Amino acid sequence: MSAAARSGRPRGWPNPPRARVTIRRSNLVPPIHPTSPGNDSPGSASRAGGRPGSVSSAPRRRRTFVELREVPGLLLGAVRADAAALRRVLGGRRGGRIGVLICTALMVLAAPTPRAAGIALAAYAGLGLATALVHRDRQGLGLKQSLRLLLWTAPAPLALAAIARLAGAASAVPLLLAVLVAYLLVERGLRAGLGGGPGGD
């Protein structure tokens, strides 16, 4: 049987034009760019700093600054030896500077004489060193971190010492007791299981 008979057309009729289908490669395979999320090429891994999905390729988390609106809550948490507040004080940037400013202002009000202020600063440094030596092996606490914790536990006792001085107390005992209470508050927080955090600036 001829092809014309099989197709049902009379012999001699022209064949109908065939439809041409053009398949573009771009419709089948999407282009892979070096910065696309699904690109697992070795080049992308080296640019990301490690293998795709590895910890080294993830963006590093930066420490945030301690904001002024946080200061009252952090001071209250430090007095209560709250672990979250103390960790925030240790890890937050500029936490040390803010603590220095607060303690300096309160020291001026609480110290009856410059000699008393010098004794209180010496006691502060000595207690900070003792805290670092005691908790260095167990919690990895350094001298910088222990001094920072004391800066944030000292304002409340120093405020009480300043009130006592303004009330007429001319002795340096309230000032020295404030430094001692700040040290005890730090010890309370550390013995509750607080680990030493990174020191900021």
The tally of structural domains comes to: 2
Estimate what percentage of residues fall within beta strands. Answer: under 5%
Tally of strands: 0
Task: Indicate the mean pLDDT.
Answer: 76
Fraction of residues in H or I helices: 55-70%
Label the structural class. Answer: mainly alpha
Biggest sheet features: none
Annotation field: number of helices: 10
- Taken in chain order, the helices and strands follow as HHHHHHHHHH
Summarize the structure.
Helix content is 59%, strand content 0%. It has 10 helices and no strands. It has helices spanning 3-7, 25-28, 42-48, 71-79, 83-91, 95-110, 114-139, 143-153, 155-166, 173-191.
Q: Would you give an account of this structure?
A:
This protein folds into two domains: 20-60, no CATH class; 68-191, no CATH class. Helix 7 (114-139) packs parallel to helix 10 (173-191). It is an all-alpha fold and 201 residues long. The protein has ten helices and no strands.
Index terms:
201 residues; 10 helices
SSE blueprint and pairings:
Blueprint: H1 3-7, H2 25-28, H3 42-48, H4 71-79, H5 83-91, H6 95-110, H7 114-139, H8 143-153, H9 155-166, H10 173-191
Helix pairs in contact: 4-5, 6-9, 7-8, 7-10, 8-10, 9-10
